[in-house]
């Protein structure tokens, strides 16, 4: 009777494993939204816990069968053979569910990391847009133009590491068919805004550099002219003081 019960337990265990495999491992999942992906991660976590909880039952079953095989070898040997098959299948099921759970957790982590990098770069784009707008309608003053240029250049020196991460994470998920529509849309919008703002910012940078150069050249010319006028005024004052007749002066002084 005990052998019959143990044989029944083995059959029930095998049936449960078959159902678990069908439910958790043989489904074709399509993760088209973050909610679907998150639900799949939580489901696989529960599956892993469920499978591992059966470990105690498997151990008890194993101990009982080995004890029976020791006491009644004739009826226990067949059970030991069946037990070995069940143990092998159980271990395989545990490994596969652990693997799938780990994979889904990695995918979810990849998605969250992508969102974090997108948030960082979007904040930078917002800052860049603000700095570009600050360069419009500036007063025609050298120090103001110079400060605006330095401010814009400081934002443009932003490293490209985050954008590299966004591209690689996005491509990894898209290649795996994970949230591909949503990610493609996000990346397309981000890249379009990045290209537009970067082009505008560089154009404003060049314009400010040219404006600054023109203003410096003009200031230099005015300074030279002012120095020449001061020197000419000094010479003329000297001529007047010495009562020199105009026709006695050099031609340029006349």
From TrEMBL:
The keyword Coiled coil applies. The keyword Coiled coil applies. InterPro entries: Spectrin/alpha-actinin (IPR018159), Spectrin_repeat (IPR002017). SMART domains: SPEC. Keywords: Coiled coil. Residues 3-64, 208-242 form a coiled coil. It comes from the Eukaryota. This is UTRO protein. It comes from Semnornis frantzii. The gene is Utrn.
């Amino acid at each position: 009777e005990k052998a019959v019960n143990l044989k029944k337990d083995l059959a029930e265990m095998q049936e449960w494993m078959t159902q678990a495999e069908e439910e958790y491992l043989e489904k074709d999942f399509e993760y088209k939204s973050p909610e679907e992906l998150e639900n799949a991660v939580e489901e696989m976590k529960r599956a892993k816990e469920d499978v591992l909880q059966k470990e105690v039952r498997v151990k008890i079953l194993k101990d009982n069968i080995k004890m029976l095989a020791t006491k009644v070898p004739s009826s226990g040997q067949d059970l030991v053979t069946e037990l070995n098959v069940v143990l092998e299948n159980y271990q395989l099921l545990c490994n596969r569910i652990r693997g799938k759970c780990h994979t889904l957790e990695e995918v979810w982590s990849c998605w969250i990391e992508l969102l974090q990098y997108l948030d960082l770069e979007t904040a930078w784009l917002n800052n860049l847009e603000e700095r570009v707008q600050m360069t419009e309608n500036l007063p025609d003053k050298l120090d103001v133009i110079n400060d605006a240029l330095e401010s814009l250049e400081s934002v443009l020196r932003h490293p490209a590491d985050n954008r590299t991460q966004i591209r690689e994470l996005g491509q990894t998920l898209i290649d795996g068919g994970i949230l591909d529509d949503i990610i493609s849309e996000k990346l397309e919008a981000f890249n379009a805004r990045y290209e537009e703002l970067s082009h505008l910012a560089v154009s404003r940078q060049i314009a400010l550099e040219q404006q600054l150069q023109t203003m410096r050249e003009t200031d230099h010319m005015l300074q030279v002219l002012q120095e020449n006028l001061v020197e000419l005024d000094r010479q003329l004052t000297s001529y007047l003081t010495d009562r020199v007749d105009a026709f006695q002066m050099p031609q340029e002084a006349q």
